[in-house]
Amino acid sequence: MCAAREGRWCRRQQALLWCVLLAAWEAAWGQLRYSVPEELPKGSFVGDVAEELALEPAALGGRGARVVSQGRTQYFALHASSGHLVTAERIDREQLCESEPQCVLRCELIVEGEMKVYAIEVEITDINDNTPSFEEVQVQQEISETTAVGSRFPLPDANDADLGVNSLQSYALSGDEHFSLSVQAGGDGEKRPELVLAKALDREEAAFHELLLRASDGGDPSRTGTARIRVAVLDANDNAPAFSQAVYTVRVAEDVPVGSTLLSVTATDPDDGTNGDIQYSFPEISDKASNIFHLEPKSGAIKLVRNLDFEEAESYELEVQARDGGELFDTAKVSISVTDVNDNAPEIWQAQPNPDWRFSQTQRPGTSGSQNGEEGGAWPNNQFDTEMLQAMILASANEAADVNATLGGGTGTMGLSARYGPQFTLQHVPDYRQNVYIPGSTATLSNAAGKRDAKPSGGNKKKSGKKEKK
Question: What DSSP string describes 293-344?
């Protein structure tokens, strides 16, 4: 009994084993292969399964034929009425296989009525559906203006998910003669663009350079992605300040108020930042001039900090310097001329009159050929001679006809010696610029007291000769 049972079990095991082997043989013998491009719409034709298996389409439907894909997503289906294998979803090769060189999807056709399984492989081919792209479409590269020609700088890579000729094939650069493009092949076969400095930079000529980098694939038509490269030229202190004039000249009156701006010097420096910041100074200046003039370090204005005096100095020669933040500098000369103003009143010194003073016979004032008046020195009683004597005295005193000016008499009067009679009131004030003619003499009486701006005694009189420049 047991032996019989064991025999039946053994036969069943053998039958099952044959069925498995047969199914495996049928599956291997019935393997189907197809190829379709990616991105086909749902329901697109993949292959004619019924024809490949020499089965009637109706027989496939009656025998419970169906397609099963690996994984959760069913990418293919069997069209029951036609026996065609069709797409059940839109297929994106880059999403399924990323950078794999070959993308193959596998599924099985199961015919339940015949207990047959047919393996199906569908290769998804690439189409040029991706444009090369850069992670950043706006890129800024900083390069110093002193960078040597031939220097290289890496540029951003472009990415293209397509394969083969549809992938990224070339780069191109446009926009400026200062730069060229070099493309290096990496160890992984990728192309790496580099920016090459082809011409020396000058920030003062151009602070920025705008470039356009193009990445193109080999599709037909070709797809191109772009990135804008902005090169910012970093400044170097390659320019010294420069004054607008080599020599600045100005004429100022000696009575100009303290605090006035006499002139301003101006220098320019095309460099950027601290390299172009200018400070003005007097590199060398005498103690005397430094007490009179002040130079504003930022504006270049020269201001007066103490009163000028023409009688003290008629001119000043100064040196100014403009220095940038990088220690480059320029110098210029400043010439300040001081003009005189009538700021000094005339003073009289011509002593107490000598009691024995008298005119000689040949010098006595009067008309030509006239010898009126007393030889002993009595005051002339001739009106004309009297006025001439007055004119002589007044001319020698310049403009002493001031109510505060007296000589030997009371306010507003001028007298001689007591022996020549009473004091006389000043009248007929003459022009001090004119010479006075003394009749009977070969000489004329000039402005003996000096010019209008003559200084009083005590060290304030003008010195003769040219003034020393300060």
Answer: EEE-TTT-EEEE-S---TTT-SEEEEEEEEE-TTS-EEEEEEEEEEEP-S-S
